[in-house]
Amino acid sequence: MIFSKKRSLLLVNLLVIFIITPNVKTMAVGPANIAVIENQSPQYKNLVDQLIKLKSRSGTVSQMMDKLDDRLNDVDNRMRTLQSKMAETEFELNEKSETLNDRVRAIYINETSDSPLEVVLKSDNLNEFIDRLSFFEWLLKNDTFLVKKIKYDRSALINWKNELVESRQKIVRLKNEKESSLKEISALKDELKRRIAAASSQQILEVDQWVGVVNRINQFLSGYGSPLDSYGQVFVAAGRRYQVDPRLIVAICGVESTFGQYCITPFNGWGRKAVGGGYKMYGSWDEAIWDQALYLRTRYLDLGLTSFYQIGQKYCPPDPAWPDKVKAFFMMI
User: Fold this and answer.
1) Contacts of 80 (CB under 8 A, 6+ apart)
2) Residue 43: which of 51, 32, 33 has the closest Cα?
């Protein structure tokens, strides 16, 4: 039970350290720094960023769908207006045609057996002849004008209707395309959510595995009576941050200061020299561990010095046994 509580506490502390990527070499561990570990996983962040972009894209497509719906409603309203106008035009055509017929029939009052030409020819005098002829010419012109106007109106309405039908078909086609896009986006979102869940589980599993490394480091240092026997989580966090095996940091400390028991300057368990002469001084073990991890990454590993021998040739050239000593401690952890 006690071991379980200690392990749970260690897991929480390790989560805190893994989650927080410090900009300085010291770390403040506390409740205020506790966050969800997935939010700091690069893989998780990448997946979440993709999901955010998809959600934004989905919102954009939805807005476009709303605009298409508005356009479709507008076209339908205009179609209804058009149908009303066409009905009015047909009614006007019938009404004016009937009016023309009534006017022509009025000429034949009491003379229904005569043709319009006979009506003109039966004029009593020249003035009446001219008046009747002019009247028939006016009727013909007016009838022709009305027919042409109504045909023109009909043609314009038909063209308008064709344009509206074509516009509606285009809008419906675009709407179908956007609906397909939304389905694709939804499928991608579901896949990303699945991958995010998988990344989350993998990250938690990875942390659980590192708990074992922390325990081994602490137990190993405790066996040597080291003041660093409770800093396993810091070694692991610094190593993970700079991609340095934490056992290498511990092993070098063992060779240089018997795991921090005999330091030349405060907290300098790695024999690090200062710029300008003398040895570096630190304000805490945390600061020293983080600085050592960064130092190994930038001054050795990044330069291709990755073997114990290569590191030893630069780190402590006077001692040819240095690489073997470091390797021995490394393999014991």
Assistant:
1) none
2) 51
User: How many CB atoms are located within 10 Å of the residue 14 CB?
Assistant: 23
Q: 230: exposed, middle or buried (C-beta count within 10 Å: 0-12, 13-18, 19+)?
A: middle
Q: What is the pTM of this model?
A: 0.45
Written as six digits, the tokens of 166 are 């074509």
Domain 43-199 has CATH 3.40.50.970: no
CA distance 66 to 78: 18
Distance of CA 7 to the CA centre of its chain: 38
Q: Encode 252-291 in three state secondary structure.
A: HHHHHHCCCCCCCCCCCCCCCECCCCCECCCCCHHHHHHH
**DSSP-derived 3-state class of residue 315:** helix
Q: Residue 279's beta-bridge partner residues?
A: 273
CATH class (in words) of the domain with range 224-332: mainly alpha
Q: Locate tokens 């009838």: which residue?
A: 143
- State residue 259 phi and psi, 5-degree precision: 60, 45
CA dihedral (67, 73, 76, 81) positive or negative:
negative
Contacts by 121-128, CB closer than 8 A, 24 or more apart: none
Spans of all domains in the chain: 43-199, 224-332
Q: pLDDT of 88-129, one tens digit each?
A: 877 877 776 676 666 556 554 444 455 555 665 666 677 766
